Amino acid sequence: MAKKKSPGKFAVGSKVRVREGIGSPEFPEISIAGWVGTIVEVSGKGETLQCVLEWDDATMSAMPADYLKKCETGNLYHAMACLPEDHLDAV
């Protein structure tokens, strides 16, 4: 059986790093540049391609307290994020 081709440049399981100048989707004032995670889902097409990431242990340990507090207050899960593919680079 042939392996299904990913719709973008990253496949599920790819390890990626957030590009410089990128803020959190929920809290744009908080930079997430340099954060590293593994793609767990890819959806959309073309310029609207979105990647769901699960942050790695080093990123989770280094998350700013302000970010964690905002996630807690907003009932958001801090261990994952959904970002446009063009905000990411391969690790």
Care to describe what's here?
The chain has 91 residues and is an alpha+beta fold. The chain is 16% helix and 29% strand. The chain contains two helices and five strands. It has helices spanning 57-62, 65-73; strands spanning 15-18, 36-43, 50-55, 80-84, 88-90. A five-stranded antiparallel β-sheet has the order 4-3-2-1-5. A hairpin with a 6-residue loop joins strand 2 (36-43) and strand 3 (50-55). The termini are far apart. The mean pLDDT is 92.
Given as residue ranges, the uncertain stretches (5+ residues, pLDDT < 50) are none
Neighbour order of strands in the largest sheet: 4-3-2-1-5
Query: What is the percent of helical residues?
Result: 10-25%
H/E element string?
A: EEEHHEE
Count helical runs.
2
How far apart, in Å, are the first and last alpha carbons? 29 Å
Write down how many β-strands occur, each being a DSSP E stretch of 2 or more residues: 5
Sheet of most strands? 5 strands, antiparallel
